[in-house]
Amino acid sequence: MGRSEYAKASIGIKILLSDLIQQINKDNWVLIKEMLENGFIEDENEYFNDVYQKIQNSEQISGNWNKSKKFITDYCENNGSYFMDRFTGEVESTLENGCLLDKYLLVPIKKILTCERWGYERSGTNSISRPLDFDLSIDIEKYKVLEKFEIAFILEQNSG
Q: For 10-23, what is each residue's pLDDT tens digit?
């Protein structure tokens, strides 16, 4: 079976997951839910995003902001990364590197570059470029209802 990999460079929002969750209320739930669905955890080489995907795919994230806030808080407080034994393949949850509440959520807003590669067990270098003649500004007006976020350059790498 073939394999695909991609890397995306974007400008977007960076916010500590605990700060974002604390701000969930009736008025901003739709915005925060969208951020949770479109974002991912800043995770260099661990399995936080694998664990975080359970929030994105959960049916418990509903229209009810209060119940959703409780579920997300409890889940993020009690889950972090996992350890996979390279010999047995056994997976074990761990909070050794912190819980999800300690991690930053990255939400891409403006895509700058995307580079894809696919094939059977390919190795080597791929690259892409773009002239620097484009606007790096982003519209953050809808995010101004939130506190404690920053604008960040985001690099997302995905393999599957």
A: 999 999 999 999 99
Contacts of residue 44, Cβ cutoff 8 Å, sequence gap at least 6: none
Report the chain's mean pLDDT, rounded to a whole number: 89
User: Cβ of 148: how many Cβ atoms within 10 Å?
Assistant: 11
Sequence letter at residue 38: N
Q: Scan for tokens 């190795």, then name that residue.
A: 123
Locate all alpha helices (DSSP H) within the chain, ordered by sequence: 17-22, 29-38, 48-56, 65-78
pTM over 0.90: no
Paired tokens of 54? 């359970």
- Quick one: 86 exposed, middle or buried, by C-beta within 10 A (0-12, 13-18, 19+)? exposed
With contact defined as beta carbons under 8 Å apart, do 52 and 101 qualify?
Answer: no
- Report how far residue 71's alpha carbon sits from residue 89's, in angstroms, rounded to the nearest whole number: 29
pLDDT value for 5? 83
Which one-letter amino acid corresponds to residue 47? Y
Rounded Cα distance, 109 and 149, in Å: 13
Kindly give the parts of the chain with pLDDT less than 70: 1-2, 119-122, 160
Tokens at 35, concatenated? 């951020």
> Which residue, 152, 139, 144, is CA-closest to 11?
152
Which structure tokens are listed for 28?
Answer: 């901003």
